[in-house]
């Protein structure tokens, strides 16, 4: 709001001088932008499920960066419920926050949430996921300000490169996916299998869901080993499932190698003790911080133009370079 200050001054002197208007002064409002800049920004973080270590680390990184920037951060946990996430985003819109960082549970429903926020004049960015069904990373939804995420497809390719080195003579391979409906079941697998096909000599004999948990990952690998005792390599698309798979391999006296995704503490520990061959290092704490920084830049005019997908580095990790990946979840 434009502010006007009036200052009166009593001029002592000749009567002619009393007629001078210069004795009264009025501000031009030049201090208004400074007042606006002092307004604390409020950003909402609509998260996936903070009982899961990865989204929880995103939240912690976001909180740290918000504190550094002097931003108020409102964190909400959908607990993996799409309807609840929708309701929480609507609550943030009603609160008239300045921006919303969405950790989408599903790309299709997320687009509707972005549309609602955009219609209310609220900036939206996403982290750890995309908006819009079947959208490619290089083509972000136009109503977003930014995307900060892992290169899921590239990570699958990195896992494939490690698989070729782990089993240079080829052999049978089994894939353990997450819960049904998750995009990662495709994005983390497509380039992995392509790397095997390019090398030649590999056959994917089974694909089963491990539902993102150690227990279900172990059960899936047990089932596969019962039918295919000579599997040479398991690719589990999360470290939790990969660790469970390692337990199944040990119980079956198999020599199969295991590759995971994530760089989680359990995965790094498993690489060190030989349970896993390798993983791909993800950094959710840094990711949350980057998302808050991007939103801050968008709200303060430093980030403009069409939205872009921002990937951070996700290197492959084996026993040879395991200390290079400091677990963030």
| Number of strand segments | 14
Q: Label the CATH architecture of the largest domain.
A: 3-Layer(aba) Sandwich
Radius of gyration over C-alpha positions, nearest whole angstrom: 27 Å
**Strand percentage, roughly?**
15-25%
- What's the total helix number? 11
Q: For the residues shown, what is the average pLDDT?
A: 89
CATH top level of the largest domain? Answer: Alpha Beta
**What's the main sheet like?**
6 strands, parallel
User: Within the CATH hierarchy, at the fold level, what is the topology of the largest domain?
Assistant: Rossmann fold
Brief characterization of the structure:
The chain is built from eleven helices and 14 strands. By secondary structure, it is of the alpha/beta class.
Verbal overview:
The protein is an alpha/beta fold and 329 residues long. It has 2 domains: 39-149 and 284-313, Rossmann fold (3-Layer(aba) Sandwich); 152-281, Rossmann fold. The chain has 11 helices and 14 strands. It has helices at 32-37, 53-69, 82-94, 107-119, 152-166, 184-187, 190-199, 214-227, 239-251, 265-272, 284-299; strands spanning 6-7, 25-26, 42-47, 72-77, 99-102, 123-127, 147-149, 171-177, 202-209, 231-236, 257-259, 278-280, 309-311, 316-318. The strands form 4 sheets. A 6-stranded parallel sheet has the order 4-3-5-6-7-13, with helices on both faces. A 4-stranded parallel sheet has the order 9-8-10-11, with helices on both faces. Helix 5 (152-166) packs parallel to helix 7 (190-199). The chain is elongated, with a radius of gyration of 27 Å. The two termini are 44 Å apart.
